[in-house]
Amino acid sequence: MLICAGRNEMIKYAIPIGVGLVEASIGLTQLCLKENVKQVTFVGTAGSYSYDIPLLSICTSTQATQIESGFLFGECYTPLENCIAIESQPGVSHETYSHILVNSSNYITTNSNVSNKMTNAGIFIENMEFFAVLRVAQEFYIPACGIFCITNYCNENAHRDFLINQSCAKIELEKYIANEYKKYL
C-alpha cells in the first residue's frame, strides 16, 4: 500500500494519512484497522541535512529517528524509543540513496549547526511523518519503507527552496513509483 502525507503533498497512487507525527499516526492506524494492510510504502518529500545529497534525489529508508534539536545539544532527554528500524518490503530500487536514516519532527530545521550535528550523527534527511509511519507499522507487524525526494537543504532557505522544488519532487516521486511499483499498481 502506498501512502503519503496529503494536503499539499498528494502523490499519485498514494493514500493520504495526515501531516506531521500525530496526524500520520492516527491516519495510518485508522487505515490499518479498516484495511488488510500487508505492507506500507510512505512516499513524500524531505529536506537534507547533508549537502552531499543533490536536490531532487530519490532516497529510500527503513529506519527513522525522532530527535529534536535540544537533544543534539544535551538540553533534553527522552524516556521513549527514538530510533526505529523495520523490515523492508520487496520492490525498492537500490539505485537511489538507500538505507538513509531519516529524522522526523513536527518542525523543519532551518539552522545549519543543527544540520551539521545531524549529519555527524549519521542522520541525513528529515521528513515530518516517517517515524510515525514506522512506529505504526511496527505495532501492526507490517513491513514498511519510505521513498523520499529531496526538496531542500535544512538551512535558512529551507522553506523557500521547499516551495520552489515541491512540484518537481512530486513529479520525480510519481515517475519513480511508476517504474519501481508498476507491477503493484
From TrEMBL:
It comes from the Bacteria. GO terms for molecular function: catalytic activity. GO terms for biological process: nucleoside metabolic process. Residues 18-160 form the Nucleoside phosphorylase domain. It holds the Pfam family PNP_UDP_1. InterPro entries: Nucleoside_phosphorylase_d, Nucleoside_phosphorylase_sf. This is Purine nucleoside phosphorylase punB. It comes from Helicobacter fennelliae MRY12-0050. The lineage of its organism: Bacteria, Pseudomonadati, Campylobacterota, Epsilonproteobacteria, Campylobacterales.
